[in-house]
Design goal:
alpha+beta, six-stranded mixed sheet
């Protein structure tokens, strides 16, 4: 499938209404697993529907390769059935009166494929998704995860150039979601299909995608690999939206600024004296360590004294809640904490773990270079 390009794509539903999507530039390459990630109402499903052709653009254009499939200014609109894309909805949308086999080959029958080719393709897809043993059952006789596999099989059978998935796992329980994530990852590797996946679940995006596009209020906030999104968030919104527990944010220069924020302000001023326009600093919980003695705090790290106000086990790790005079920090550890609630401890974080944002919430790249060069000096 050629590259899909959205250039200045815009969608609104009325003259006086706010844009559901605003001036979106997005490139989806052949064979990519792209996740559109963001909170409810951010425009991710609208974007998916515009790519599919279920929504007309209000402005801008969409190209598939060199072919324009939607352009308001040029008066071009290619209908959904001619875009060679498969769409899997949040609801499985299976035919209740058809068996699993007939649901799977439904699209192939519409395309009037020869019987032998149709049966061979359906058998291969059903075996790959482990639903061949249910071929004579009806959707109501399957679990939610099995029905989801049938919906995927129906789309994969017609061999679409692009597979569009609109929160397909949101109706499944935690264990089935985990199984289906692994299944989708395997299918992407096996069939090399371009996949565009809409989700509000950050872990779904982080574990599945080769590329993540984070959206908020109809605009693209950042696009990159999962590691880029997590390790170098472009702004505070991305930093706070991606991560669990969420990133610790220390805001400077506001009324009621916390004592820990004051420490961070002084720490930056001493090590990066020419850095201007800093509005806040973020620290991921897993980047923070703690020590019971000041002598064990690594030299040159950002640190302070706090009280342990909570030790929260989550199964594989623990979340520690640390309270200073006017601020609460959260840190995570994989080692069983040997401290009690109420104990005094020293938190610390290496300089390169500080994410520095300006007063408008944008990442300050200059700070990255300076802090990473400090190490523990």
């Amino acid at each position: 499938m050629p590259t899909i390009n959205l250039r200045g794509a815009q969608k609104n539903y009325g003259v006086n209404s706010a844009n559901a999507v605003s001036n979106l530039d997005l490139e989806i390459r052949d064979g990519e697993f792209m996740c559109l990630l963001g909170p409810s109402g951010c425009g991710k499903t609208t974007t998916l529907r515009m790519i599919a052709g279920l929504e007309n653009l209000s402005g801008g254009e969409i190209r598939i390769g060199e072919c324009v499939v939607d352009c308001v200014a040029g008066g071009v609109f290619v209908p959904p059935e001619k875009r060679e894309m498969g769409l899997v909805f949040q609801s499985y949308a299976l035919w209740p009166h058809l068996t699993i086999e007939r649901n799977t080959d439904f699209g192939l029958r519409l395309r009037k494929l020869p019987k032998a080719e149709r049966e061979e393709r359906v058998e291969r897809i059903m075996q790959a998704l482990d639903i061949a043993k249910y071929r004579d059952r009806y959707p109501s006789q399957l679990s939610g995860g099995q029905q989801q596999r049938v919906a995927l099989a129906r789309m994969l059978a017609i061999n679409p150039g692009v597979l569009l998935l609109d929160e397909p796992l949101s109706n499944l329980d935690a264990r089935l979601r985990l199984e289906m994530r692994a299944e989708l990852k395997r299918l992407h590797k096996e069939f090399k299909t371009t996949i565009v996946f809409v989700t509000h679940d950050q872990w779904e995006a982080m574990t599945l995608a080769t590329t993540i596009a984070v959206m908020n209020e109809g605009t693209l906030q950042q696009m990159g690999t999962p590691n880029d999104i997590y390790d170098r968030p472009a702004n505070r919104f991305v930093a706070e939206f991606v991560g669990s527990p969420p990133i610790n944010i220390l805001t400077f220069g506001q009324t009621g600024t916390s004592d820990v924020a004051d420490k961070a302000d002084a720490y930056l001023a001493a090590r990066c004296p020419h850095l201007a326009g800093v509005g806040s600093v973020g620290i991921r919980p897993e980047a923070i360590g703690y020590a019971t003695r000041i002598e064990d705090v690594p030299k040159g790290s950002f640190s302070g004294e706090t009280t342990v106000t909570g030790v929260l086990p989550t199964g594989g790790n623990w979340i520690l809640e640390l309270r200073s005079e006017s601020h609460t920090l959260f840190l995570t550890t994989h080692v069983l904490p040997r401290i009690e609630q109420g104990a005094r401890v020293f938190f610390f974080a290496p300089p390169e773990a500080l994410h520095v944002f300006d007063t408008d919430g944008r990442r300050i790249a200059e700070a990255d270079a300076r802090l990473s060069g400090l190490a523990y000096n």
